[in-house]
Amino acid sequence: MKNVSLQMTSGALSGLVATLVLQPFDLVKTRIQQGGVPVNALSTVPPIYTKPTVLQTSREIVYENGVRGLWRGTSASLMRNVPGMAIYLTTVTQLRTFLASYPYFARNLSENAGVGKGESVLPKLTNQGNLISGAVARVGVGFMFNPLSVMKARFESNMYAYTSLRSAFTSIARGGPSELFRGFSATSMRDAPYAGIFMVFYEGLKRRASSVFPTNSHSETAMLHSLCGATASGFATVATHPFDVIKTKLQVRSRDQKYRGFLSTVRAIWVDRGAMGYLDGVSLRLGRKVVSAGIGWGIYEFLLVVMYRM
Q1: Through-space distance between the first and last CA atoms of the chain, rounded to whole angstroms
Q2: What is residue 49's DSSP assignment?
Q3: Given Cys at both, which of 18, 71, 88, 277 links 269, Cβ 3.0 to 4.6 Å?
């Protein structure tokens, strides 16, 4: 299937819905991962850092800015996620279509011949094809949108007093390419395995679930795809979360010398928080990614099937 405009529209709609619904998860996760001031900052003994809880952080945000404060940074998130999701889903679909033309990557040429009632329209690939298509598409789009990711993270943080998207981007751009692409190494190390693992599990779960629970309508199929997407995202999220913590530290705490590079950030997290520091915000990211994948892929494949048939 070559309809790029159809895929872009479906991807943008899925990104819009997921962002508006799940922004509070991203906001609280960023606040937890950014870290804070040590509880014994004025003492001569080594600093001791405490981990804020999800409930405590949420209460502080609501106390300071009201319930609407939980959606702080939504504009930056929409700028990043709507076109980002549209381009990612379109890229991965086009890449899968390309790989499906090669016998090594095509799971079964007969499976790619058409679209039956309630079936997925995505090309069927081997595990190698799923892994490559997901990883390549995700890293490529991540590089393209990394400056917006930096702006999004800093808007969600309370360490920057940005008053508008324009002033935020201008401030970051003044730092040059090193600031615009800050955290990209950690982002790539998170996104490549995440997307690859996700696509392998997602396609495998869809294949098995459709044989066990055959669907009779597009709505039932969309629900099945949502459940498969949510489950696959759960596995991929847990496996890659430490890199998300590192990425957030790099993008938000660039003024701190110990967070200036990838290795120094890894070391600083270990010194400050130990092994558990690499899991800061995991419950929030897990909840956000699971629901986001369920919404995003469910809507995307549903719209593609319906529009493809029309």
Answers
A1: 14
A2: -
A3: 277
135 backbone dihedrals φ, ψ, rounded to 5°? -65, -45
The span from the CA of 111 to the CA of 127, in Å, is 15
The CA-CA-CA angle for residues 44, 48, 52, to 5°, reads 145
Which amino acid type is present at position 112? Answer: N
Which residues fall within 8 angstroms of residue 97, CB to CB, at 6 or more apart? 1, 2, 123
What are residue 176's DSSP bridge partners? none
- pTM of the full predicted structure? 0.79
The model's pLDDT over 118-139, given as tens digits with 9 standing for 90+, comes to 467 788 899 999 999 999 999 9
Residue 175 φ then ψ, to 5°: -75, -5
Alpha helices in the chain (DSSP H): 4-34, 54-65, 74-99, 127-144, 146-156, 165-174, 177-180, 184-212, 218-252, 262-273, 282-309
- Beta-bridged to residue 106, according to DSSP, are 125
Cβ atoms of residues 12 and 83 within 8 Å:
yes
Cross-strand pairs, 125: 106
Tokens standing for residue 259: 């967070």
pLDDT tens, residue by residue, 159-204: 887 778 888 888 889 989 988 999 898 889 999 999 999 999 999 9
* Distance in angstroms (rounded) separating the CA atoms of residues 71 and 88: 24
Report CA 141 to chain centroid distance, whole Å: 11
The pair of structure tokens assigned to 115 is 């679209």
State the pLDDT at residue 257: 81
